[in-house]
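Reopening this one. Same input as before:
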Amino acid sequence: MNVQTAISDAVQPLSNARPLRVLLTGYRSHPHVGGQGVYLRELACALRDLGHSVTIASGPPYPEIDEGISLVKLPSLNLFEVDNAFTAFRPGFLTRWADLSEWASHNVGQFGELYAFAHRLKRHLADNPYRYDVIHDNQTLSTPFRSIAQQHPVVTTIHHPIIIDREFALQSADGFMDRLLTRQWYRFVTQQAKTMRDMDHLLAVSEASRDSHVARYGIDPDKISVALNGIDHSVFYPDANTQRQTHLIAATSSADVPIKGVDVLMKAFCALAPTRPELRLELIGHLRDGPAKRHLEAAGLEDRVTCRSGVTREEIADLYRRASLVICPARFEGFGFPAAEAMACGAPVIASDGGALPEVVGDAGLIIPAGDDTALRDAMEALLADPVRARALGKAGALHAKAAFNWPAHAEAAIALYRKAIAQC
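Same output, byte for byte:
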């Protein structure tokens, strides 16, 4: 077959029965960096299992790749890991716009990885014409995607509007200079909003995700499909052989930033701990200097809180099976993997009403007002004092999670959008 024939075959219309060549993209994709890394890995596996050819293009830290899935590494400068980012400049940056923009943005206090990643991806696509049928981006939404979408079918998953993170960060900023630096850091939010308005095929992971993007960014709701995330039920499931440990509270948070609500959890824990001397908290994630750590230190309860990072999914599932309660205190979530995964393990869940959490938890857990540490303390006390009710919630949660959250259904929703985007390209 000659080259011209190969190109003709590659660009002819695709039938609904033909497997697709899907490129999933994410600027950072390791599962330990947060829910978006989990999303890419699980969606890739679900698409592969449905018979499609799947490649992930990612910047570092790279995703965990399962059998049958390809990886394209698009290295960043990784400036957060160097001692002095300013001196990391190299003359070669002058001929590589992605590197120059990432270096310059970082050194003026902006988050430039999204823009640089999108430029590297654009170059990869130019160097590999006709290699993919569709690009599915995981909320990069940087301006180069506007031109990418003019040449390729593009579907974009949206989780939650980052402008909400910016609002919470500004509310907690300490003084004028801190607010100025916060605004500078989040300048990419304007890029994302403009890019999103130009995208025709958006996939939201919850109704709350869709509604918040419509309200915050002025997105046409007719452009947004909704499909709940799945979870891996081979990892997250109840185990009757694992005994729950009395007075063990568990929570998962990727960072101690206002939107994650770790400060709310720590206030509630510190208020409850004096009356329950056996109460312990195990947190998956770092507890760096910030409001949550200060609350804990002021209460003198550091020895009753354990923080772990870099843990496997199996270790997280084991914690959820051992915990008396799992707390999901975020002020806003576009979905909320910890709540869904904890319920799947049969853990009683207390979640805030932030974003999609009530949608995820339903009637199978307790919902308290976001940011209300007193309400959280009272809910924790109520379930610790009533183990029968706690067990009933755990059983209801496991049934709800099994029925509501599955990756094949999410992948099928994505495939429907792929075929629509291909037909319209």
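So the earlier flakiness isn't reproducible anymore. For the record, The chain is about 45% helix and 15% strand.
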